[in-house]
Amino acid sequence: xQQVAKPKIKRINMTTNSYAHILQPLNLGFTTLKNxxxxxxxxxxxxxxxxxxxxxxxxxxxxxxxxxxxLITGGISPNRQGWLLPAGGTMNTLGDIAPHRLVTHAVHxxxxxxxxxxxHSGRYGYQPFVVxxxxxxxxxxxxxxxxxxxxxxxxxxxxxxxxxxxxxxAGYDGVEIMGSEGYLLNQFLSRHVNQREDQWGGxxxxxxxxxxxxVKAIRVKVGEKFIICFRLSMLDLVHDGNTMxxxxxxxxxxxxAGINLLNTGIGWHEARVPTIVTSVPRAAFVDYTAEVxxxxxxxxxASNRIxxxxxxxxxxxxxxxxxxxxxxxLLADAFWVNKVATNRVDEINTCIACNQACLDHSFQNKRxxxxxxxxAAHETELVYLKTKKAKxxxxxxxxxxxxxxxxxxxxxGHNVTLFEAASExxxxxxxxxVVPGKExxxxxxxxxxxxxxxxxxxxxxxxxxxxxxxxxxxxDEVIIATGVVPRGLKIEGSDAPNVLSYAEVLRGAPVGNKVxxxxxxGIGFDVSEYLLKPEHQTQPQPLAEWKREWGVDPNPNYMTExxxxxxxxxxxxxxxxxxxxxxxxxxxxxxxxxxWVHRAQLKKHAVRxxxxxxxxxxxxxxxxxxxNGHDQLLRVDTIVVCAGQESVxxxxxxxxxSTLANYHIIGGAKLAGELDAKRAxxxxxxxxxxx
Length: 691
What we know:
Elements: H1 20-23, E1 26-27, E2 32-33, E3 37-39, H2 53-65, E4 70-76, H3 97-108, E5 113-118, E6 131-132, E7 146-147, H4 150-169, E8 174-179, H5 184-189, H6 204-207, H7 209-222, E9 227-235, H8 244-257, E10 261-266, H9 286-293, E11 300-302, H10 309-317, E12 323-326, H11 328-332, H12 336-341, H13 359-363, E13 392-396, H14 400-411, E14 415-419, H15 429-432, H16 441-454, E15 458-460, H17 467-472, E16 477-480, E17 484-486, E18 499-501, H18 502-506, E19 514-518, H19 522-532, H20 543-550, E20 575-579, H21 595-604, E21 608-610, E22 613-619, E23 622-627, E24 630-634, E25 638-641, E26 645-647, E27 662-665, H22 667-670, H23 677-690
Parallel strand pairs: 3-4, 3-12, 4-5, 5-8, 6-7, 8-9, 9-10, 10-11, 11-12, 13-14, 13-16, 14-15, 16-27, 18-25, 19-20, 19-25, 20-21
Antiparallel strand pairs: 1-2, 17-26, 22-23, 23-24
Helix pairs in contact: 2-3, 4-7, 7-8, 14-16, 14-23, 19-21
């Protein structure tokens, strides 16, 4: 078979911009990508139903308009066995083409290119037809897979090729074959699942046969002028995973078979090492990509926790990769590339890698969106139209709910004044940003501060406003975003000086060596993590230290199984009891994709987790509690209360009370609950979009 032309990488001079490498085109021989930014595959939930494709087209169209060079869709299955969900998104018949054309057209209109990702879920599917290399059930799935027969393997190769040819007919510029994160092809590539003894199992040359044959079959079907990208797991992080040597062997074979781009996958979904949550240092895995890049001539794409231009530029300038892939950062800001190109980096709405509205939604079969950008995947529904009649609007409270409402209202053309009682905006995010691993929250506050200034919002700090003043100043609309205060503890001795609220602790109040944390929601976990680390610890955590703590082999040319080594954990500086009244397991309400990380973090630092606890009294000796009907004294120096919040809503008029302005309430002031920034920012944007 004819070899695919090697890409010619053209150098251009862009002295005017400090991000010249990001903005440089990439010539693939038969086509050119306009810059080095790839929007990685992200399942939004819109892919699964044809009637959602107009919304999907608007979502991709917005990011193409925002300057992204190459976009990749969420996973589309090549056959029924490969469905992630029952009746998931497929591309199997000519009838599937029409909705996809909406997407490709929306992207091409703005000069970008788009690949359709072909994903066969293998044993990760949420449906009973699942198949795999061997009949071994995944720890994160419901169904045990059936072992694929030779006939089944050959027909699946044909299905991949057929799907790719339909993608070409639908106007896609190419396909990405999903061969990482523990999906079917990864299951074949690794001994972790593949325990076959036929020509599809055993040595790496046999285990990779399936993936290599798929690439060859697609190339025959689609011809030379069609991009084939392969997403390869460069670090499995599971028992019996591949060594770097094996990864390179696969990469070279894929290149020979005819791929044009090699993308990075890191870790399986079932791996017990975090790969994308906010506590993972930026670009934590780029050295493994750089190692593979040394051995192939096709352009290689770096991925995972790249969210700001300086990180991306650094990777490209150092020659560690040819392109950088971001998925969540482009949900957070569709115009990321355009802002980089026009030197407006301070205006980027940065992804904080919280996963709350994107991946957590995907895994709950809900439509994905973004905590810091509620318009993501809702572009046709949440629209910020210029107002025909400018109103005078007051927003009371400068937390994220208030800033979201104020900036959207001002962007639409209203005259907005923001009142904040404290000396700075940011609200609860000012507390969150000091928690180890949540340093990205600084970026959100920076973004909103820039937006307040840019949209011309009048900001009055250190101003505690009352209703009389609001009425006197003649506002048409008043948005109450006064947030929450920590709920106190109402037991004997709870007013003692060693009883502190979470807010006092995160603001730096001194804490003893033995601590009881009351309340095990998100804040209880955050406070416990904060108290485990020495005060002088470098933030964010240095990469080498993070790898050591999670057991990631620091050697890019690793010989260990899946690059996984025994973790080394520093001794905690405090003894911590984390407790709750509920009898359910601790941390059950945390995010699906990040909760396990927090639980693992506390567990390995010997935090004692206690449930079904009744709090009795605080004495000089410590905290008296009742567990299983028995009283017990916890000899602690400090008690930190994380037992929820109470809404601050005194400014809201009572029902039937007449006021000159219309009053609205959003965020924590409306509903204290578990602190919910996702809801707060969305409510702020929604109310401002309506006024």
